[in-house]
């Protein structure tokens, strides 16, 4: 059973400290006047791509985004993506693990959670310039590495995220009417789904893990995104299946086993009933 390729900051960025790892590069230096093509893979760190000028294609968890000027992409650890950038793109690429930047201040934490709840944002040119100024400050601090540079980077990331959430044209995943408690519990559920979907598939089990009743859990998911907990479980199973179908050459029976299905035929029926295609056909059509 092959796994989806995972990229680690430790592979290329040494010098881990108790403060966590952080890397930042200028896109012009990354590309070096050449096009960039990265096949499907995932990271165990956060990934922020800010494109000032340029074009390309960014596919995140099998949703395709055409890259245009003034675009920002944020990936959470575990998400699968492929990336193509044309030569001459400008902007910045940031990579950091959760131990480097994980805001604990209530307001900063809210901005961070809203920002990472969506993968793609496009903003107006004038507003992008403001975002770019914060990233430029981060880049200067990272290059100089003077005393306190990590704190300065985090402070500029706070400002960057405030502006990104403020100017994003995309609606947040969680409805504006959801209160903080509901939003926090919903986000806890999303984290559990990402971590445990191969072993845990029932609403009652997730409710127990969150110390909630099934009724309370469904009330939270409906208030947040208008879906039942069962809907979200199904979506996560299908997402994990698609990740393995497209990012590995594994046989269908091995993917079914990975997802916790001993009966391969049941898994195939489940997948087809929700996507309209068998796993094999989905894999061929997406290739």
UniProtKB/TrEMBL annotation:
Keyword list, A-Z: DNA-binding, Transcription, Transcription regulation
Family matches, as InterPro entries: AraC-bd, Homeodomain-like_sf, HTH-like, HTH_AraC, Tscrpt_reg_AraC-type_HTH
Domain of life according to the entry: Bacteria
Domain HTH araC/xylS-type positions: 187-285
SUPFAM superfamilies in UniProt: Homeodomain-like, Regulatory protein AraC
Signal peptide stretch: none
A molecular-function term among this protein's GO annotations: sequence-specific DNA binding
Protein name: AraC family transcriptional regulator
Organism: Larkinella knui
């Amino acid at each position: 059973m092959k796994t989806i390729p995972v990229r680690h900051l430790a592979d290329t960025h040494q010098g881990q400290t108790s403060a966590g790892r952080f890397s930042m590069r200028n896109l012009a230096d990354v590309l070096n006047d050449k096009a960039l093509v990265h096949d499907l893979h995932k990271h165990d760190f956060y990934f922020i791509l800010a494109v000032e000028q340029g074009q390309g294609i960014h596919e995140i968890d099998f949703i395709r985004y055409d890259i245009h000027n003034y675009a920002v992409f944020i990936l959470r650890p575990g998400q699968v993506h492929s990336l193509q950038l044309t030569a001459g793109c400008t902007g910045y690429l940031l990579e950091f693990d959760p131990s480097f930047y994980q805001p604990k201040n209530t307001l900063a934490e809210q901005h961070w959670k809203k920002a990472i709840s969506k993968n793609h944002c496009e903003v107006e040119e004038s507003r992008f310039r403001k975002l770019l100024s914060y990233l430029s400050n981060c880049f200067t601090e990272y290059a100089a590495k003077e005393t306190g540079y990590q704190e300065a980077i985090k402070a500029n990331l706070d400002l960057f995220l405030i502006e990104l959430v403020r100017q994003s044209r995309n609606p947040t995943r969680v409805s504006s009417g959801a209160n903080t408690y509901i939003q926090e519990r919903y986000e806890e559920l999303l984290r559990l789904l990402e971590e445990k979907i191969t072993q845990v598939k029932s609403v009652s089990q997730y409710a127990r893990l969150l110390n909630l009743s099934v009724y309370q859990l469904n009330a939270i998911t409906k208030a947040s995104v208008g879906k039942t907990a069962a809907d979200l479980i199904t979506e996560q199973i299908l997402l994990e299946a698609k990740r393995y179908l497209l990012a590995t050459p594994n046989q269908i029976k091995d993917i079914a086993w990975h997802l916790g299905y001993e009966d391969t035929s049941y898994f195939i029926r489940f997948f087809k009933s929700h996507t309209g295609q068998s796993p094999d056909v989905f894999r061929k059509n997406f290739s």
